[in-house]
């Protein structure tokens, strides 16, 4: 915090040594102004907002409490503290009440006590100002609160709406988002299925911010990330003393999400014992915090997700059938990235912009060959793996143009294997006329190209796969006019 941002404290004392002592005590935490009389103090107050004023009682011209009465009327937001060496004067006692003195400090004061008093006074002033603003907004019908809530909601929808789920025209995600948008209107449970890293949480947030509960909280918990013994406490809360380490009451996520949405990721990882407790909450609409004898009503919409096939888990006895039908009111399937080949380039461009900005290299871009390499890979880790790969390439490449060489070897191998597969035009180009020997030569040339591409031009491995010597392979390459480079 810069000195200009520190709370301002005005010291009013006609003794310079007393001013200096108070300044040394307070100047690390506050911006200090000094005045030797009430007149000088008024000049400061008319020019500068003052958080706290410390005023000596015995001053020439006007007593401290009399001046602070005026401060209360003209500058009521300033916290008033009086310092005096006298305690038995009736005018001081009466003046303290009339001036609304926050604290009376007796001389000789203790530095630590003085500092603590001023700190508390500033905190009390900040709290009072916040309460006053809230009271004003409530008294005027709370239009400001409504406007702020609407603004925050619009910002959240812009960040988490369905349009923020990156996809190409005609993508399989179009159908998923369209169905999710329809389901979002109704207060139904939704189960999102899909591999890890496909964006299940992103879809759940979009459903929440398109639902009637959009102004309520959205809270999530990864059920696989917390031991089962703690998951109940995290979701449903606990009372002080419920177990070792429970030193205070804890409000669970379900209570925090009251009126909103709870997203339970990887719900398939929960134990049957926990599933019973969760089912009770969903059926009865109330929960009992750990260690409590009183049920607490909760109003939440539950969205759940898992990478497992829950129907198989139900058949295997690892997931309760009644809970499955409770959470799977409707099921949405997030396709894996390999099932969204046309989306890969679009998502990669989007990810690159964010990653390059984070790493301070906004000029970095993909070459067409790099995008082809990314699109050819299967992406078992889905979007999460794609982002990690792009971040690695940006960090390790000094060139502004990212080429296939910037990616991990497994991506380049995947690209070579994809390019090695005969395309429809290649298959169509096979001769339909000619002798058997001529047609077999064409097929043999295609096989040679495929094997060489898959082994990235390594003739030793290609020859071994084809059960040829390197000399024999080279002879066939020359015969069919294949590039030996």
UniProtKB/TrEMBL annotation:
Keyword ATP-binding: yes
Domain Sigma-54 factor interaction: 166-395
Domain Response regulatory: 8-122
Keywords: ATP-binding, DNA-binding, Nucleotide-binding, Phosphoprotein, Transcription, Transcription regulation
Name the UniProt record assigns to this protein: Sigma-54-dependent Fis family transcriptional regulator
Residue list for modification 4-aspartylphosphate: 56
SUPFAM superfamilies named in the record: CheY-like (SSF52172), Homeodomain-like (SSF46689), P-loop containing nucleoside triphosphate hydrolases (SSF52540)
UniProt-listed InterPro entries: AAA+_ATPase (IPR003593), AAA_lid_NorR (IPR058031), CheY-like_superfamily (IPR011006), Homeodomain-like_sf (IPR009057), HTH_Fis (IPR002197), P-loop_NTPase (IPR027417), Sig_transdc_resp-reg_receiver (IPR001789), Sigma_54_int (IPR002078)
């Amino acid at each position: 915090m810069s000195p200009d941002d520190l709370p301002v404290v005005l010291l009013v004392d006609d003794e310079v040594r007393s001013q200096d002592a108070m300044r040394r005590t307070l100047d690390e935490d506050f911006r200090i102004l000094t005045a030797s009389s009430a007149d000088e103090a008024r000049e400061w107050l008319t020019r500068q907002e003052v958080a706290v004023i410390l005023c000596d009682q015995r001053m020439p011209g006007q007593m401290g409490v009399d001046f602070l009465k005026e401060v209360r009327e003209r500058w009521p937001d300033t916290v008033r503290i009086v310092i005096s060496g006298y305690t038995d004067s009736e005018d001081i006692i009466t003046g303290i009440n009339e001036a609304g003195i926050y604290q009376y400090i007796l001389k000789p004061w203790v530095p630590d006590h003085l500092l603590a008093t001023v700190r508390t006074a500033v905190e009390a002033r900040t709290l009072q100002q916040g309460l006053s603003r809230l009271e004003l907004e409530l008294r005027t019908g709370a239009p400001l609160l409504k406007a702020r809530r609407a603004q925050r909601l619009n910002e959240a929808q812009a960040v988490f709406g369905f349009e923020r789920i990156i996809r190409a025209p005609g993508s399989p995600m179009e159908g998923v988002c369209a169905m999710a948008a329809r389901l979002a209107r109704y207060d139904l449970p939704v189960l999102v299925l899909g591999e890890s890293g496909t964006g299940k949480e992103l879809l759940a947030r979009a459903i929440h911010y398109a639902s009637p509960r959009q102004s309520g909280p959205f809270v999530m918990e990864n059920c696989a990330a917390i031991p089962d013994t703690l998951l109940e406490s995290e979701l449903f809360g606990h009372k002080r003393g419920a177990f070792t380490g429970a030193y205070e009451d804890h409000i669970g996520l379900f209570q925090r999400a009251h009126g909103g949405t709870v997203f339970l990721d990887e719900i398939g990882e929960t134990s049957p014992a926990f599933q019973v407790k969760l089912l009770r909450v969903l059926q009865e609409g109330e929960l009992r915090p750990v260690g409590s004898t009183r049920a607490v009503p909760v109003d939440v919409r539950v969205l759940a997700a898992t990478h497992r096939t829950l129907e198989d888990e139900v058949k295997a006895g690892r997931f309760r059938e009644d809970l499955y039908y409770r959470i799977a009111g409707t099921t949405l399937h997030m396709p894996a990235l390999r099932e969204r080949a046309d989306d890969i380039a679009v998502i990669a461009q989007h990810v690159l912009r964010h990653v390059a900005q984070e790493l301070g290299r906004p000029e970095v871009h993909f070459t067409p060959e790099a995008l082809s390499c990314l699109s050819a890979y299967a992406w078992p880790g889905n979007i999460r793996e794609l982002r990690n790969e792009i971040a690695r390439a940006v960090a390790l490449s000094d060139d502004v143009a990212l080429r296939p060489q910037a990616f991990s070897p497994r991506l380049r191998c995947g690209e070579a294997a994809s390019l090695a597969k005969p395309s429809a035009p290649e298959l169509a180009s096979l001769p339909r006329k000619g002798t058997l020997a001529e047609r077999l030569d064409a097929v043999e040339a295609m096989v040679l190209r495929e094997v060489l591409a898959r082994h990235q031009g390594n003739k030793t491995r290609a020859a071994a796969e084809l059960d040829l010597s390197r000399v024999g392979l080279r002879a066939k390459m020359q015969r069919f006019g294949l590039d030996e480079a």
